[in-house]
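Forum: Protein Structure Q&A
Topic: Joint prediction for protein chains with partners

I've read a bunch of threads here and the consensus seems to be that you should model interacting components together rather than docking separate models afterwards. I'd like to see that in practice. Below is the full input, 1051 residues plus whatever partners are listed. Could one of the regulars post the assembled result?
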Amino acid sequence: MKLATDTLARFVDLPPDANDVRHLLDDIGIEVKRIAIEDGVGQMTLELLANRGDHHAYVGIAREISGRTGSAIQRPEITDLTVGETPWPLALETDLCPRYSITCLERDAANDASLAPDALRILEAAEIHSIGPVVDATNLANLELGQPTHAFDADSIDGAITIRLSRAGETCWPLFQVDRIEIPEGTLVIADDSKILAIAGVIGCEDSKTTDSTTKVLLESAAFDPIAVRKASQVLGIHTDSSARFERGSDFALPVVGAGRVAKLLEPCGWRVTGATGMVGDWVDPERHITLRPALLNDFLETTMTTDEIAKRLERYGFTIRPGADLTTIDVIVPTHRLWDVELEADLIEELAKSLGYNDTPISLPPVDMGSLPTHDEHVRDLVEEVLIGHGFYEVITDGFYGRASRDRIGVTEGHPLWSHVETVNALDRAYSLLKNNAYAQAIEGVSTNLRVQNRDVKAFEWTRTFHPNPKAENKVCDERKLLWAIASGPERPESWTGPGRPADAMFLKGIVEEIGLALELDLRIGAADPSYPLSSCLHPNRQAVVTLKDRVVGVIGEAHPEVLKQNKIKRARPCYLELEFEALLSAGARPEFVEPPTVHPVERNLAFTLPRGVEAGDLTRTLLDKGPDWLLAASIVDLFEHEQDGQPVRTVTYVLRYSNEDANRTNDEVNAITDELVATIDAEFGPRGVKRRA
Amino acid sequence: MNSPSERPDVAAILESFRAALAAAGTPKELEEVRRQHTGKKSALKSALGSLKSIPAEDRPAFAKSINEAKNTIEQELEAAKARIEGDAQASQLDAEWQDLSMPGVAFPRGARHPLNLVERNITGVLRRLGFEVVDGPEIDNAYFNFDALNIPEHHPARDMQDTFWVHGGLLLRSHTTTVQARVLQERSQADLPIRVASIGRVYRNEAVDATHLAMFHQYEGIWIDRGLTFAHLKGTLSFIAQSLWGAERRIRFKPKFYPYTEPSVGVDVACTGCDGDGCDACHGAGWVTILGAGMVHPNVFREFGFDPDEVSGIAFGLGTTRMAAQWAGVSKVRSLYEQDLRVHRALHRGAMEGSR
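Posted by a regular:
Agreed with the consensus. Here's the joint model:
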């Protein structure tokens, strides 16, 4: 809502400085989003509370100020209207209209005076365009009082005015629309015998609107069911000041007052009321009573207000106060303009807190016994984050959903284990149509994003959640799984003058998994690729592995499949991806067994073997350790040389065998003999597969 | 018996030594001088060996001259050693000049997301008040997202939270208050106090632009106990705000509307740019809203079987996405939800290496 401070000052006393008015409004919960001050007058844009329809008018705001400051409210002049024989036939066919009034006004054809300039200025301040005196008067009355009204050109009305629900296939031509539209069946409308005159509480129609030549109007002033207006406004996509007011619940006692204000505003323009005001609808004020306990109030606010003070403050807001059933209570009657939001004693306490000023009531900290410690979840996250951050990863955040294109780009087609998604049904954007069932698609897109901005050094991770359709889930729709993912692309170390370094490949991510395992004291292991892992087909078939914990697959590492890169338009980069189940990371861990470092340096022997493609170095490691003596402490890989042999790509892997020499009496001959035995064992086991010792 | 003319010439020995010493420029050459002039085959040793052939009356004086020469040689060798090693070290240091204006090469750390940092800060503050962090589903039902929180169907408040509905009649939670609702349901018979915080992603089905997101983050807390008052609400909010924004930062309270609290409160902190006077950064308001809060609505208590005459509650929520944007100093919050790592690097490491 937009208003001007000089207009507001007509209704209630204000501080002279517009900035002080702003602070006053903020203080009572009417937030000033913007203010422009010119010649001492503040033009304000307000953000109103969603439950306070009565704030959509100058009087409503003035009443709120009065409640806080105690200043009296000045109400606008109205023409006293008499409810009696209706000037036009009225029929009410629905209970969604508690009150509907019609007042007839006429003017001499020769009189075409506009509203007074100061009245037009108020409309201008509210950014409401002047259309003509009648429409301007209805707009101004709504702005002042919060009672929307609508004027029909009486000469365009065909028969009785009926308030009813629309029928199937009915159409109308709403004001400011380019064409007729179909009205959904069951919409609350105002109609005559041949057409719809207005969508109740939302907007009038072109074929009954007033024009410069109109000399007789039927002024509608009514109360409509908020939900009915809200539904109509939403389904038609038509939002007006009127619908905004009715949706939040209008004052059912106000229709005749609103019509009287319009009549008063039109008097100087030559319009006069003819006859009585017609009224249908059986609404009567329910006189809601709320019992207020001053003692409870004072305990709650930590104040010492007397009953008299409480009564005076509530009366400023329009409440009626009577003695309670006993001396410890007050009987509070809710005014009609607050029937929508004041139902409980707690609501009255809020009114009194506002009257005192939220910044002026006492403040204290409740007693606190002791603090709390981080949860295991938080501890695990901390440890994992430290590993990743220490290796150059940045935490990112991705959306919980993506579009079908994202799914397609990772090669998920019908029948794929990741094909099925939980789908949103009303997303405004196609990019939000599927709730993600994997984090891989967005991780790859992240690489793409960075390459587009020429950032080739990508190391990102996220704690996220995926959604997996499952009719047997507790909510009968899906399971939610939390996971950690990370992606690395480009050099292992950022580009530097020291040289390019090695790429951040799957081996790098394997190292990350190992470090995470150590940090969490979990025996995370890298195992052979599992084609049944949902992401398996999206990864390079020969550069992927699963992560296991106690023989259960809990994650995966692998390089992106070249086809996925192609679909994502990624060139000259080989991103590698890692994901781990969060639940698995929460498992109980065990510290590695402590092994005392040797006091005498171990005896070392180097062995190099040439391995053809397909033979894993780890298999040789295991054989060396399995077949070696107890005093073989370790068989560590210390070098890798990739080259060709007989035209085939091979790898020469160098191991260091470390033999215990605790008694310092291990002889060279003894160590050499054992080493020779191990070489023979490797030769026997792996020789047939093409493994050879390299001298 | 040696005649005086046949006796070793100590002066000549010294002279020979000094000539050799002067020619030595490296520790190795110096060692060679030491070996030649003090070793077993040196003239000095030879002179000592000739003492027996010196007449007894001359022997003390001759021995003394040899010893003096020996001491002189050793002293001069030590001095030369110090000089030569010093020179050598100086030469080595000179050769080892390194251009430390080159960029450092330690493995650069990454960083947590600003949102994570903000959440950790808040959690740290709330732990001092005894809060525990709990989690809940992101796909929830209308009961926990709306109905149980005093937001009936067609209530205008639902406008504030345009909702993503998913197949199966469920929805993506539009606030983390769902977690609090679940806690209230689960702990309606539990001992008091209940102090829980819920953190996480929430969803709003609205047009996305640089400053509006369809998914963002919230941080909420709820404290249920007997005897909690409006003053306690203000005290708690004040403690949180000043712990996060500084004890000297001015704060103010203002009425708000949230369906699940009554009274409802908004908390503003004075703008860092103008301390409340109004500036461009705060659009002239002087204040920036940081959290929404209130006393738990009696209807919410009744919904979960609590007696609102017996217990009361403090509830609050912080817009952590906005806080993270403020921390990062970015005006377009969307950039924090994209994966452009240049942004994250710049936030944590400043301008790129080599920048002005």
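The first strand of chain A starts at residue 2 and ends at 4.
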